[in-house]
Specification:
The complex is a heterodimer of chains A (306) and B (429).
Chain A: E1 21-23, H1 30-47, E2 51-52, E3 61-67, H2 71-81, H3 91-106, E4 119-127, E5 137-149, E6 152-163, E7 166-178, E8 181-182, E9 202-206, H4 210-218, H5 223-226, H6 228-233, H7 243-253, E10 260-266, E11 274-283, E12 286-292, E13 296-304
Parallel strand pairs in A: 1-3, 2-8
Antiparallel strand pairs in A: 3-5, 4-7, 4-10, 5-6, 6-7, 9-11, 10-13, 11-12, 12-13
Chain B: E1 7-14, E2 18-19, H1 29-43, E3 53-56, H2 68-75, E4 84-86, H3 93-107, E5 112-120, H4 130-141, H5 145-153, H6 176-186, H7 191-210, H8 236-240, E6 244-246, E7 256-257, E8 265-275, H9 276-281, E9 288-297, H10 310-322, E10 331-334, H11 339-350, H12 352-357, H13 379-382, H14 389-404, E11 409-416, E12 420-428
Parallel strand pairs in B: 3-4, 3-5, 10-11
Antiparallel strand pairs in B: 1-8, 1-9, 2-8, 5-8, 6-7, 9-12, 11-12
Helix pairs in contact in B: 1-2, 3-14, 4-5
The chains are: A alpha+beta (306), B alpha+beta (429).
Chain lengths: 306, 429
């Protein structure tokens, strides 16, 4: 990481708060961040401090400029999620580009929640126009909205991506730290409407090595996706699919538009291997996909804009 | 009113062609065809449209790609309600898709369709040996442990070597290059003539790119902007320094090199074809009418003709049907499978004895001024992803004819493995 700079140019980033802006000279290594996250999470577990102050976020923004895409990595990603191998970057691949920064943000000293064991509850991306292979992108990442949840505390990690000063993509990943309390309080359980499985339009066969394969193209090597032992340590019988893999596969299945909002709710983890039923359809202007096995696991909406 | 219908080339789109193992080493036939199709859709504002049909194909094809073209449509911005089908006629695949779509438009069965083709030597299917395949099928059918063990026991280490696709003719065992070497020797075609043709191909293709001719025919893909095989700075000296690769076992000098033969290439092409009135209603261009096509085939198995000379016979038949001669064409496109293929074709049409004995004519079919031949270069420079070549040539020729004004005619000739070929007449609208 190189020097902190207030007021540095950060194209495509909306102004939010007055926290420090730290410009990274290069994209942080995900492996190093995730190892650091592991150590930090172990330390957090040892101290057993589970109370988070509502103002615990310091407003830090991490910034990296001029990120490029390797065509072969893009192709591998597109093949894995079932997207056509166009020069247009899938919105989920832009998430992958921004992910190392989000990860670096979450392992910084002072980030109030432990990286390891965070549950990805939902993800929402708004894209103004596709990023095209060959374009350099700038990424700015910050966290906001610490929120009490009936099972812990959730936080939004926001990534904003621009091309030559033009904002093109904004992603909000909502993560839950189970067992934490916000200012000593927990929220009531939200009423979830009962869900009835509809007639499927298809099925996804998700192989046992899917976690490792998505880790290879995305760089997200969180061990709950790649190691059965680690998955068991977090209470899963086997490895679980990356939420963003299933969300990206749904986006490809629904034919990704140019400008749209793409929201994924990860209702329950998908344990690998698994064959899940899917139903693709429409709801007004939105394209909708649900996936389920015994219970509802994934709900994705893609709403074209303009 | 079928008589008033005219299938026209509205435009085309292709990927730049890459050398095998290059920029497209990790993309598939399906990826390439989808990219070419999406570029066409974007160029002519067809996103979400239901077209009459899309026809395309590939020569080197995985069994998983049994519905290659339909899958490309489903992955493209076209409406998923657009029907599609695969065609395979070796290197004439692209031409045959154009024939098929154009004929249906003329019949009134379609108003608009897309023809195209793709090939990737980088994505070639690797096949297991026949012995391993048989053992695996037995294993799959085996019900008992004993039967399964018996099936596995038949597998020998030597059966495990993968089998790469062969470009040899099944009935002769000769590769396409070795077949052409026989033709090259039979027609006495010199090394210098071949290198001159290759040089012209590179120079003309480079000039066309520099002039922006391909700006609305080619969409960059995977960071490739121009055909990777193009060597704008090649020269007779550089071409002359290359060692011969085909015909080394003949008693005549070997003249065919990597410079005057097309390399293995990856790429895809598409052509938008429509009834003239459909294009007019949408304010889209009508570059050239697809007047007619003719397929041909020769008996190369018994040495009666060269493997790649079917167009030598098909063109006179097509011309006779329309009462035309070679002089009626402003431009002639002869696919450069090898420089010597083009040169042997020209020599055959100029040869009074051949034209009398084999084509049944009173005199030569005629000669073609080199200034009219492959005016923007051809496969020696661009490369030759087998099934994509027909679409490349027809889109290029149609655009060139449109620039020359109404009535300008072009002749297109594409030879193919199996001793076949498809030729066509285009005419500027």
């Amino acid at each position: 990481m190189s020097g902190a700079a207030h007021g540095a140019s950060h194209p495509g980033r909306a102004v939010h708060g007055d926290g420090p802006v730290i410009e990274l000279g290069s994209v942080p290594s995900l492996g190093a961040s995730q190892r650091r996250g592991l150590a930090g999470s172990a330390a957090a577990a040892a101290t057993r401090r589970r109370d988070v102050a509502a103002d615990a976020l310091d407003g830090t923004t991490l910034l990296a400029q001029g990120l490029t895409t390797d065509p072969d990595r893009l192709t591998a990603y597109q093949h894995l999620v079932g997207a056509p191998a166009q020069d247009r970057l899938p919105a989920g691949f832009v998430h992958v580009l921004a992910f190392p920064l989000a990860n670096a943000l979450m392992v910084r000293d002072g980030f109030p929640l432990p990286l390891l064991g965070l549950v990805h509850l939902a993800n929402e991306v708004t894209q103004q126009r596709p990023v095209v292979l060959g374009e350099e992108v700038d990424v700015a990442v910050h966290a906001e909205r610490l929120t009490a949840h009936h099972r812990g505390v959730s936080v939004d990690v926001v990534a904003e991506v621009g091309v030559a000063g033009e904002p093109v993509w904004r992603g909000v990943s909502t993560y839950l730290a189970k067992g934490y309390r916000l200012d000593g309080a927990t929220a009531d359980r939200a009423e979830r409407p009962e869900w009835h499985a509809p007639q499927p339009t298809g099925a996804w066969r998700l192989e046992a090595d899917l976690g490792r394969r998505y880790a290879a193209v995305s760089g997200d090597r969180n061990p709950i996706h790649t190691s059965t032992l680690a998955a068991k340590a977090f209470g899963f019988p086997r490895t679980i699919a990356h939420g963003m893999y299933t969300a990206a596969r749904a986006l490809a299945h629904l034919d990704e538009p140019d400008a749209f909002t793409w929201r994924a709710e990860f209702a329950a983890p998908i344990v690998l291997p698994s064959t899940v039923s899917v139903r693709a359809g429409t709801d007004g202007p939105a394209r909708v996909l649900d996936a389920w096995a015994k219970r509802h696991q994934l709900h994705v909406t893609v709403t074209p804009r303009g | 009113m079928a008589g008033s219908r005219r299938p026209v080339v509205v435009g085309g789109n292709r990927t730049p062609f890459a050398r095998a193992g290059g920029a497209y080493a990790h993309v598939s036939n399906l990826d390439l065809l989808t990219a070419a199709l999406d570029g066409l859709v974007a160029r002519f504002g067809l996103a979400g449209e239901r077209l009459g049909e899309v026809a395309a194909g590939a020569v080197l094809k995985h069994t998983r790609d049994f519905n290659l073209t339909r899958e490309a449509v489903l992955g493209s911005a076209l409406s998923n309600e657009t029907p599609a089908y695969d065609v395979q006629m070796a290197c004439a695949t692209g031409m045959e898709t154009i024939a098929s779509i154009a004929d249906k438009i003329r019949l009134g069965r379609l108003d608009v369709g897309v023809a195209g083709g793709v090939d990737s030597a980088s994505d070639a299917p690797i096949v297991v040996t026949e012995q391993l395949r048989a053992a695996l099928l037995d294993l799959n059918r085996a019900k008992t442990v004993q039967a399964k063990l018996a099936a596995v026991a038949k597998i020998r280490p030597s059966h495990l070597a993968p089998v790469a696709p062969d470009v040899a003719e099944p009935r002769t065992g000769l590769s396409m290059g070795e077949h052409q070497a026989l033709t090259t020797a039979a027609w006495g075609i010199s090394r210098e003539e071949q290198d001159e043709l290759a040089l012209a191909s590179h120079q003309r293709l480079a000039a066309a790119y520099d002039a922006g001719f391909f700006d609305d025919l080619v969409t960059p893909y995977r960071r490739l902007v121009r055909d990777a095989n193009l060597r704008p700075d090649t020269s007779m000296e550089k071409l002359g320094a290359l060692a011969p690769v085909f015909g080394k076992r003949l008693d005549t000098p070997a003249t065919m090199t990597a410079g005057n033969s097309t390399p293995l290439t990856d790429g895809a092409s598409t052509v938008l074809l429509a009834d003239q009135s459909w294009a007019a209603e949408r304010g889209l261009p009508a570059l050239a009418e697809v007047v007619d096509l003719e397929a041909g085939a020769v008996d190369f198995v018994h040495g009666k003709d060269g493997l790649l000379l079917a167009p030598v016979h098909a063109v006179p038949r097509l011309l006779a049907r329309h009462g035309m001669s070679l002089a009626d064409f402003e431009i002639v496109e002869i696919h450069e499978a090898f420089a010597a293929t083009v040169l042997a074709t020209l020599k055959a049409w100029e040869d009074p004895d051949f034209c009398r004995d084999r084509l049944g004519r009173d005199g030569p079919l005629g000669s073609i001024d080199r200034a009219r031949l492959n005016v923007h270069g051809s496969s020696l420079a661009a490369g030759h992803p087998f099934a994509a070549t027909g679409g490349r040539i027809v889109a290029t020729a149609a655009k060139e004819l449109a620039s020359r004004g109404s009535g300008a005619r072009g002749l297109v000739s594409v030879c193919a493995a199996g001793g076949q070929g498809v030729v066509a007449i285009l005419e500027a609208v």
